[in-house]
Amino acid sequence: MSEAINTREEIVVDPYSIPLDGHFNVAQSHLFEQNAHWAYFERLRKEAPVHFCEESEFGPYWSITRFEDIMHVDTNHKVFSSEGGITLGDQDEDFTLPMFIAMDPPKHDDQRKVVSPVVAPINLVKLESTIRARAANLLDALPVGEEIDWVDRISIELTTQMLATLFDFPFEQRRKLTRWSDVATANLEQGIIESEDQRREELVECLTTFIEIFKERQQTPGDNDLITMLAHGDSTKDMLERPMEFLGNLILLIVGGNDTTRNSITGGILALNQHPDQYQKLRENPGLIASMVPEIIRWQTPLAHMRRRALEDTVIGGKTIKKGDKVVMWYVSGNRDESAIETPDKFIIDRAKPRQHLSFGFGIHRCMGNRLAEMQLRIVWEEILKRFDTVEVVGEPTYIRSAFVKGYAHLPVVLHKK
Amino acid sequence: MAKVTFVQFSGETTTIDADNGDSVMKIALDNLVPGIDADCGGECSCATCHILVESEWMVRVGAGNDQENAMLGLNPDREPNSRLSCQIAMTDELNGLVVNLPEFQY
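^ inputs. structure came back:
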């Protein structure tokens, strides 16, 4: 699988050497795989912060790259609709998955309200000791002084365990959740799936598995898990009559709780290795974990973008966006916008307002699991600092080939004991 | 100047002499009153500056606009006296305002 990726040699063109016209296209997955997208966004922010790309594999789309403009789009859900999809690519027409992230009010609000209590702070307090015990077990089992893949051993395993807990999913089968998450978001170039048929097949397996669990929980409610909430919530208890909607919302919760936190756990390790002064500051003052966590989430920006569609003609930054146009908010760019964040390319663990970043989005679609994500990162860092002096990155990270999920396939590290 | 009192979930109170025009959110942040996260910095777009206005003040404080209601609508802990503190600016009329902080921000 990874060999197939590595044999593709795409040349990255210097973005300043090509005309900034309708063919200037940031939505190319190989740019992200080669970590070469930064200069493209820098140029757009400076010279064309609201830019129209006429032609791409996803069709024509607008790029919004500045912090303030992104905020404007994200908070105007009456003009910028989420119906029909929230990523650049459109869904397979024969296999559309309705999910509340891709709905407008009032349906969005009704469905979100049913599941949001599971990640409400009051529930997180109950989950904290479980998460901590699992993180501790995982870290204790790691070999010291030899090379390991941080992504597989920690980031994936920890987030998958968390997800299994939230769903009260059979624990020994938890890697199925990881697989379904990967299958749902993969593009065909990544080598995770070979065809859309394969994607459908595997996601239908996910659906049938959860239909059984749903029926079980209808009869015997669990203790505060997500499926029990769906099975008994007023606007979702009949969801089995709309199986694609059920699957859509499952995928949303699986992906939402998986890829994002996974890549932030890895991103934090990489960021501290690239900024050794910050790592030292953290060793000397572990209390800084609280402000480091949102900084990791900003610096990583685990989802590079969210997409909307204009419901009417509208003007941003002097450009007229036509009704029906796709509008892409590049969170990855807004989080590095020097007009909103001071020295944005630097990872600084004690920023004054670390939570003012775009990674969770703003407005009614703001990430529902933001406090859970922060808690997971906080706990994992508290437990790392208790055990290891350094988690040393010993090779280049392998980046994921995607313009949506911004993260890592592998990160080789060596652990050094305290 | 107008006085505003913050009542923590634990019951602890803090009274601040505030400048007219400042939002209740800003007053809390500037004076290190805990309990308000204000992730978005006062743009009415994250709902992490949620407060519960003391009932007798509701008439004078009034209700929020559509955007605020849309954001508050996502909060399972919303009460009839819920408001986002970034959307309440202090005035002489609000001198003496009492607001309660919820146990958690979302």
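The radius of gyration of chain A is 21 Å. Chain A has one domain: 2-417.
thumbs up if we can close this ticket
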